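re the bet — no i am not wrong, look at it urself. input seq straight from the record:
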Amino acid sequence: MATDPMAGKLVPKDRLEDIPALISAYYTLKPDPNNKEEIVSFGTSGHRGNAYKKSFNINHVKAISQAICDHRKENGINGVLFIGKDTHALSTPAQMSALEVFAANEVQVAIAKGEGYTPTPLVSFAIIEYNKKKKEISDGVVITPSHNPPSDGGYKYNPPNGGPADTDITSVIEKRANEILKNGLKEVKSIPYEEAIKSPFVSEFDFITPYVKALNEIIDIDAIKESKIKMAANPLGGTALDVYKKIKEMYELDMDIIDDFVDPTFSFMHLDHDGKVRMDCSSPYAMKGLIELRERYDIAFGNDVDADRHGIVTPKGGLLNPNHYLSIAIWYLFKHRKWDEKLKVGKTLVSSSMIDRVAKKLGREVYEVPVGFKWFSDGLFSGELGFGGEESAGASFLRKDGSVWTTDKDGIILTLLSVEILAKIQKDLSLIYEEFEKEFGKSFYERIDAPASKEQKEILKNLDPNDIKEKTLGGEKIEHIYSKASGNKARIGGLKIVTKNGWVALRPSGTEDIYKIYAESFISKEHLKSIQLEAQEIVKRVLKDM
């Protein structure tokens, strides 16, 4: 897809979101329950939508909230429901709508002090800590569309293991929510917000202090303090802002906080590759402001709006490719933590095979799963996985003692880990990755998108290895074709084709009318290009044959 000529430039005034109009659309526009574009749909990270497109409005939030109440009742979940929200404009009205339903259903809910903002990992952390100590079973909700544009809203459910809900849960909640939408919200119990917020069912909770206090159980804070590393943190106008303020204050770190205010238009952002305002901390376009400051700091980093993703900026390397940093983090953690030798490395099937090569050198088994962090939650919770990470810059890992920290993506510990690595290794992180390239070969990795209709996406989603007649890819013999991930045997929702020095994965998007081609070569850019072109030809043939 072509790069917008404004990509990387500060958001011009004419592209800023009209917040009053957006919130008005949330309350006044009603979705058509018979229109597939306007109903509740849980993807890899909950339900996301746009108020103007009638895919994220008050009706969706109330229906999902009631469906969660029904799910809790049916499954004996009787503890506190922890609710976090991010700084997107629709998140506050959505939290208000959700509280009206939860209070009416007499669900005990905990929200941030002063109705403030809460990162996704802090909700996961709170659920896990609560369930360690209490007899009741706790779960949570995070109201966020992650790094999506300012016009979007999102709603995630985290079950008692603290991670993103798996499809066996979200399919039930989604089905029930859409039944409620179709019935005109007749089954929704709701009370006015003023009554809900004063009810005995809603209480304030300090998400930040316990999390920050416990950080030295997972990060070597003393090493960071002693190193006197000068760092910059950019929350990109998101929920990590107050967390970094607390970290700086509690541990007395030499940390500058960039863009240290909340603005629902995100006017301080640089436009992403397609000219949209998108708080993607893995995008060199969106992160241009921090990249330009890199020589002023020993290391700098940013997070997306709900702080479940990370972006690392170094003086020599600029913004590290997420796959590169995952490889570095895995190498460092499994080499320097005194973890059980049986702990595995979790990666998504579209992450770089550099991870596999690093893990092999470390003598660690790789646990490969489909796209979506939910596939790592149980492994992190049980202590089977030491680390779980995905190519889109989301990851989490265990505490120093090998016990669970969070079971959802935690962008904050990944940024702090980068500082710990710099303090201990005393080398620009990009140079560490260059050493991997010398030892394991250079990776050429890219994702490209192509248009696809809903019917075509459905065909691609259900591809079978037998549908592939080709024997070679990029001039090499095809060694494996997967429709299920090698680690947990879960369906990919597409295919992965592997050769000796390369691979390609074909997946339809869950939210857009496109399909994605992820590809990697350990030979050359030209070899990568040939893999991509041949993959596109495979798709054309398959769609023609079906």
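see?? Residues 525-545 form the longest helix (21 residues). told u. also The first strand starts at residue 42 and ends at 43. so pay up
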